[in-house]
Amino acid sequence: MLEMNDVEGIPVLVLLVAVLVRWCVSLHPYSGQGRPPMFGDYEAQRHWMEVTRNLPLQDWYYNTSENDLLYWGLDYPPLTAYHSLICGHMADYINSEFVVLRSSRGYESYGHKIFMRATVLIADLFIYMPAVWWYFCCRRQSNSLNTAKNVRNYNTSTFTAKEEKRLTTHMATYLTLIYPGLILIDHGHFQYNGISLGATVAAIAALIQERELLASVLFCLSINYKQMGLYHALPFFCYLLGNCLPKQNRSVVAGFIKLLSLGSIVIITFFIIWFPFLKNVNLLLQVVHRLFPLARGVFEDKVSNVWCCLNVIVKFKEIFTNLQMAKLCFVATLLAVLPSSMDILLRPRLDKFLLSVINSSLAFFLFSFQVHEKSILFAAIPVALYLPVEPLPCFYFLIVSTFSMLPLLLKDGLLIPYIALTVFYSISVLLTVNFGLRDLVNYPIAFTPPGAKTNQQKSKKPVRIYAEIQPFLLRKHFLLIFFVSLAACSVLTVCSVAVSPPSQYPDLFPLLISFYSCAHFIVFFAYFNYRQIFFFSHSSKLKSK
Amino acid sequence: MFWSTVALISCVKLLLIPSYHSTDFEVHRNWLAITHSLPISKWYQEATSEWTLDYPPLFAWFEFILSCFAKYFDAEMLQVKSLNYASPRTVLFQRLSVIVTDIVFAYGTLELCSYLSSSGIRKSSKWGSRWGSPAAILQILLLGNAGLLMVDHIHFQYNGFLLGILLISVARILQGHCLMGAFWFGVLLNLKHIFMYVAPAYFVYLLRSYCFLGTHSGSSVQWRAFSLTRFAKLGLVVTSVFLVSFGPFVILNQLPQVFSRLFPFKRGLCHAYWAPNFWALYNIADKMATVAGRQFGIIRNVPAAVMTGGLVQEYKHVILPEVTPRTTFICTLLSVLPALVKLWYCPGNPYHFVRCIILCACGSFMFGWHVHEKAVLLIIIPLSFMAVIWKKEAQMYVLLATVGHYSLFPLLFTAFELPIKVLLVLLHSSYAFLNLASLFDIKKCSLCLPLLNGLESIYVLGLVPLFLFENVVYPLLGLNTRLPFLPLMLTSVYCAMGVSYFWLKYYWHFLTTSEVNHKRKAH
Lengths: 545, 523
Prior knowledge:
The complex is a heterodimer.
Chain A: H1 10-26, H2 41-54, H3 78-94, H4 110-141, H5 161-177, H6 180-190, H7 193-208, H8 212-225, H9 233-244, H10 252-274, H11 281-291, H12 306-310, H13 316-319, H14 322-346, H15 350-367, H16 376-386, H17 391-404, H18 406-412, H19 415-432, H20 437-446, H21 453-458, H22 462-498, H23 508-544
Chain B: H1 2-15, H2 23-37, H3 40-43, H4 57-70, H5 88-119, H6 134-143, H7 146-156, H8 159-174, H9 178-191, H10 199-210, H11 228-251, H12 255-262, H13 278-295, H14 325-345, H15 350-367, H16 377-387, H17 391-406, H18 417-439, H19 454-461, H20 463-477, H21 486-512
Subcellular location (chain B): Endoplasmic reticulum membrane
Protein name (chain B): Alpha-1,3-glucosyltransferase
Pfam families (chain B): Alg6_Alg8
C-alpha cells in the first residue's frame, strides 16, 4: 500500500487507494438520509440541480412561486449554480425523475445516491486530486522549499537523490489525498468542497511556479464556487500586491504594469463568470445578498470558533443586533488577519505564503460572521499542504480539525467512517513521516540532532550545545502534549457516542468538543503566526550571515 | 510495521460495513440463532430456515462463541424464527465478527513472514528494505488480498479465519513441527470440510516425512525406518480433534444425520455461475457443438439447451456425455495423483508440500462437483507464499491472482460495489506486478506486463475489454433480454482458460523441479 520500493508505480497505487477510500465512504449515509421534511445538504445539492435545470437563470436566486428560497434556496456563487446546471442535465438524461420541478423534492433512491456520489468523485478526480498532485510536483521543482529531510529515507543506498525527492512528493500527495476531514464531508456528509479547494490548491501551485496571472484566475474560480474561498483572499491579494511594490531591483513602472495586468485579469474573470447576472443591477444585488446573508446569525449549531465558545458566558445574540454583531466580527477578523497579511505584503516570499494562507483562513474561521463547522476545511487543506515541512504540528491540527466536526458526523451516522479514516490516516502518517522519535530515543547517546551537525562541529561551546538541546526538549514536551490531547479526543468521542448527557444540558458533548477544538485552534493560530512572522525571518538572517 | 498494515487494512474493512451482503449473511445469522437458542442435539436437525447448518461441528461451536457476544448487540438476531433479520446492529455485529476473527489470518501471515525471514531460504538484497523485503511484500499480498476482501467483507463469509488456520498449519510444518501442523489441519477440517481437498497432500507428506525416521531429501523408501510411535502420535492428535468435534454426535447417535447435512449430493455439476474450471470449458464446448450441429443440420429435434442461470442449476448436455458425481470424483483423483506420487518420492521438502497443497486445491477446483468460484482463494493464498521466493512461481502467481480475482466479480453484482471490486482487484494486482517485478529485478519491457510473456500479457490485458463489454457495451446494445447469461458465461470461460493454463503450467513446473532445487539460492 505504501510501497516505497518501486518509484514508478507509486502514483498508481496512491491514486487507487485515494479513490477506493472515497468510494467506500460513499457507501455510508449522507446528511439527512431519510429525514423529511428538510433532509440535508444532499437534498440541497439535488434541489439546486432541479432549480437550475428547470428555471430561467434570472429566477435562480429569487423567491418565486416556483422557487421557494426557504427550502434550500441557492446561496452559493454562480459557479456552483453552473455546476448544478450541468449535473442537473446529466441527472435528467439518466433519470428525469431525479430533477422534476417541485415533485422531486426529497427524492431518494439507490440509483440517485450512486449518481450523486459519482458526481463528487468525478469532481475530485478531475479537480482536487490533480491540483494536489500538481502542487507537490511544483514544490519538488522549486529549490527553495526543501522537504526531504523530514520524510524518512527508505533504502537510501538504492536511490538517487532525485528519486528520493520524488518519493517524498508521492507520500506527501498521498497523505494530503487521504485527509479524513474533506473525504468525510464531501463523500459522506455530501458537499463539493473539493472543487473550490482544488482550485485554491492549484492557485497556490501556480504561484510557486511564478505564473501569477494563472494563479489569479484559478483563485477567482475558487471564490466563485464557494464564497468561503474568501478566507484565503487576503494572503493572495497581499502577496501579489507585495510583488508589485517597488523594490531595489524592480522599477515602479514594472510593478505598476504587473499590478494592472493582475487587476485586469481578475476583472475579466469575474466579468465572464457573472456575465449572465450583469444585465440587471437588482439581480446582481439579490445574488450578493443571497451569498452574504446577515439574517442567519453569527453561527449555526455548534462551531469551534471564538463566538460560539464565548456565547456560553456572554449571550451575544441578546446584546447585539445581527448588524452590530457583523461589524464586531469584521473588526475582530481584520485585527486577527492583520499581522500575517502585513507580513506577507511587506515581505512577499514564497515559503511564507502557505503559512499566511493558513493564518488568514484560521482567523476567518475563528472570528468571522456566519461560520459553519465545515469551514474548518478551508484552513485544514493549506495545513495539509504544509505538512511535509512541519509534520507534527500539522498532523496534530488535521486530527483536531476532523474531530471538531464530530457532532455533525454523528448526526449523519458517519461514526464508523470517521473512526476508520482517522485511524487509517494516522497510521499512514506515522508510517511515512519521521517525527524524530528515534532521535529522541538515541539523543542521550548520540547527542547530535540531525541537521545540526555542521553547527556543532563549528563551535563546541557548551552554550551552543544547550541551544541545540532545547528544541529537542521542547519537542519531547510537545509530543507528550500531543499524545495526551489525542487521548482526550478519543475519550470525548467515546463519551459522545456512549454516554447520554444530563437532561439539563443536552448539548453538553458537542459544546465540549467545540471548546476543546477551539482552544486548539487558537493555540495553532498563535503558533502558525509565530512561525510565519518570526521563524522564517530568523532563518533568513542566519543564511545571510 | 506488520500490525500497522493489519490496522490499515482493517480500516478499509470497517468502511465496507454498509456494503451489499449476500444470502450467506442470513446463513450465518441463522447458524448463530441455532447454536445459541437450541441444545446440541437439535443443531443438525433444525430446519426452520432453508439455510440449515451444513458445516462441521467445530464451526458450529465457533458460531456458538460468537453468539455469546452477539446478544450484547441485538438479541433479536438470535431467534431461530427471525428469518432474514438484518437490523443495523446485526449487520454491525456480523461484519465486526469477520473483521475481528481475521486476526487469525493476520497471525498466520505473521508466522509465515517470520519463517521466511528467519529460514534463509530466500536470499535477496532487498531484505534491508522496509517495504521492499520479501516478507513485507508477502504480508501485503496476503493481508490485502482482493479476493478475501471481496468474499469476506462484502459478500460475507469467514474465509479469512479459516485460511488463517491453514496458514498457521502450513507455517508449523515449514518450521518442522509436524504434529502441530497436523493438529491445526485437523481443526480446520472440522471447521469446514471443503479443506478435505488438500488433505491428500497432508496425508502423504506427514506419512512420508514425519512417520519415517531419518528421511532426507532424495532417500528411497526404507520400510525399516517407519516409526510406529510417530504414526501413533500423529493418529492420536488427529483422532482426538475429530473425537472432540464429532464425539457428542456419536453419543447422541446422530452421526448419519450430521453427515447427510454435510454432504448433500443434490446440487448440480456447476454452481449457478460456472466456476472457471474444466467443466465450464466442457459446457461451452457442448454448447458450441450443439449450435454448430444445428447450423449444419446434423442434429435435429433437440430441446434448446438450458443455459446456466439463477434458478436453473442443471445444464443438460446435448452432444457430450452427461457428467456424474462419480466422474468428477475420478477426474479429481486422477488429477492429483501424479503430484502426490512426486511428493512421496521427495520427502523432507516442505516447499514441495506447499506446492502439493496448491495442486490439490487446483485439481479439485478444476474437476470438482459443484465447485464455488470462491474456492480459487484456496489456490491463491498458499501460492502467495511461494511467489515471493521463486521467480517462476511469482510469474504464475500474478497471472492466477488477477484472473482468479476477476472471476469473483459476478459475486458482487450491485452497482455500488462495482467500483469497489474493480479498485480492489486493480490495487492488488498492480501492487503484485510492481513489487514482485522489483523483488526479482525484472527489467522493464515496454510491450509486456512485468513478469509475464507476450501471450500472457495479452490474455491478462484482455480482461479489460471483457469487463468493458460486460458492463458498458452489453447493456447499451440491449442484449440483456436476448442473451441474459452471456456475460457470466464469457467471464467464466475466459477465466477458465487462464486457470487451466495456470494449472498445467504449475503442474509441469512441480513435476520437473529437481529435488535439490529448494536448497539452491532462490532467485
